[in-house]
Amino acid sequence: MRLAVLKERRASETRVAATPDTVKKLVGLGLTVAIETGAGITSAIPDTEYAAAGAEIAPDAAAALSGAGIVFAVQMPEAEQRALIPRGALLLCTANAFADPETVPNLAQAGIDTVAMELLPRITRAQSMDVLSSQANLAGYRAVIEAAASFERGFPMMMTAAGTVPPARVFVIGAGVAGLQAIATARRLGAIVSATDVRPAAKEEIKSLGAAFVGVEDEETAAAQTAGGYAREMSEAFRQKQAELMATTISKNDVVVCTALVMGRKAPIIVTRAMVETMRPGSVVVDLAAEAGGNCEATVPGESIVTGNGVTILGYRNWPARIPVAASALYARNLLTFLSTFWDKETGAPKLPDTDDIVKGALLTKGGAVVHPQFLPSQAA
Ligand code: NAD
After folding, report:
1. What CATH topology corresponds to 2-119+342-372?
2. Which of 10, 68, 213, 347 is least surrounded by CB atoms within 10 angstroms?
3. In which element (H, E) is residue 313 found?
4. Does residue 276 surpass a pLDDT of 90?
5. pTM greater than 0.90
6. Which CATH code fits 140-322?
7. Strand partners, 5
8. 312, 305 in Cβ contact below 8 A?
């Protein structure tokens, strides 16, 4: 069976869905791996390294996809490339399935079986295939590194003969995978770190990393975590209480790292323009939620801006793509693990049982139909 790996075409995407390491293992499963030429360049992987690992280098997407039974991509391929995917092929990618309501029915019509890697359930068995975790972890690290580079004072306390530089105060909003890595990274750089979240479990995790917890705790937060582990959208009454606490907290911090997301929804606004105005000149806000609209009202998604009062707001959309070598290595591993888990050695092809929780959570389309409960035609209206 042929497996095609596409060169990513979406703006700012620098990652690739296979590495020489995973190509070797895919070839070991009995697959012929075709890599579209140049697919790895922005992740520092030249064609020659893929070829040395046993891949065929295809001159364009059409050649890579010709006869393919499996397609690996980072982002959902554009319509032009999707039209080249053979009927019956299995596509594994970050489908961004909630973003465009047309994509899922189009995939079904094209007869492409699609696994949306971002919809995998957050269960122990799926951990090694969990692209949200692997990418968010790196995004959290990178966010702090970029904040430190933009912050013109430095993170650690420095006691020198010429005087003392105070440590930076960093506040992290949302302590999921990205937020916890941001806390750990900021601590390693010597900052004084505090953080907030709405899920009760997050409080202990924040404290275990040596950061202070700052947050509203009430009956609503006690039930703020869904069965899937995600945060619920909070009520207006909660948002009022949280806003009061944020107003006093944010003005005291030099760097604010925003990571709060609500699965399938627009990101909650937690840092208002008025709060940004209370920050000292030279402060930095990093908004990892920018792709989902941002947690900061002043964020311009996709851009780095400086506000009238001298606060830098980094609103890049695709943070994992800002650390592509590591992000590609982990993403490629996630896809390999998924495929190996559902690999039928006897037929030399993938087998996705309808009864498996991982398949139920992530399979969008199969055999020409939409199969995911959240995207069935009756749900889409
Ligand atoms: P996420 O990216 O969906 O959200 C980031 C954080 O923002 C979350 O901690 C969330 O609680 C918080 N948040 C949302 N709304 C907020 C608000 N209004 N104010 C403050 N904070 C808010 O989260 P994630 O990193 O994808 O993690 C989601 C869950 O999955 C967590 O419970 C995590 O522990 C769990 N998880 C499980 C596994 C596994 O077992 N396989 C792997 C990774 C993550």
Report:
1. Rossmann fold (3.40.50)
2. 347
3. strand 312-314
4. yes
5. yes
6. 3.40.50.720
7. 35, 72
8. yes
